[in-house]
Description:
Blueprint: H1 3-16, H2 21-37, H3 45-53, H4 59-79, H5 104-114, H6 118-130, H7 134-138, E1 149-154, E2 157-162, H8 165-174, H9 188-201, H10 210-223, H11 228-235, H12 241-261, H13 263-272
Helix pairs in contact: 1-2, 2-4, 6-8, 6-10, 10-12, 12-13
Amino acid sequence: MNSQELYQEFINKRRNSGLSPRTIEAYNYSILPFVGSCAELPCTETNVESYIYDNSWSQAKRAFVYRHLRVFLRWYSRHYKQDNPILDVLKPRTKLEPVRYLTKEEIIRLYQKVYPNKKHRAIILTLLDTGIRVGELLSIKICNLDHDILQVTGKSGPRTVAISPSVNQLLKEIAPTNSGKVFGNMDRHTVYRIVSGYLEDMGFDGKRGPHTLRHTFAVHALRNGMDIISVSQTMGHKTIAMTQQYLRLAQGDITESHQKYSPLNLLFAEVQE
């Protein structure tokens, strides 16, 4: 069977099911070179393994490609009752990088830098206040601003999130009068450029992008007492397991604070001096 035609069938089905353009772009990036090198399916495990490993890619890119190629080949094997050639291919391992988020002091510095620009302030404060994704930020409609609960649409589907009254008011103030969306035709690349620019300007030493603000919301929400179910629902996580990485970070902060401020530890420090 022609692999190009099979891939087009796969993409059409995914597009019709409502898959986001960004995810389809990721499929194209990961799978199109493979179907270009393997004209016919079925292929062998060796073909798949060679595509993933016989190149100079980083382990992160290999893992990214593997994840998307696996979805396509699983669909193909189930739909056409064929063996899945990726089943015995070793999954690329990637080193987990620690999640970097803004401390309270860094949030204050970021706020001071962004304050003069009302539209940029609305972007950053909304991301910090709600933990939503960039696509969800851009989906906010003007008609939602009559309440302190927003309706957003993202890769996990539509959901409602709470928003602080002051941030909601700020969105009302920057919303155009001739558009259905608060941020008009702004695209995700513009949001990335705005957020990363401010983080770079303040000397932030982690990854600089909107997801940093999402991490920041999650850690501080858990640290300040929001239960993990509410955090998970607010962020649109499919499983609680996705939220637990933040719980570990929040608990780490508690441990550090305990070691710093425990009366017993302070006593031991005095004795040792």
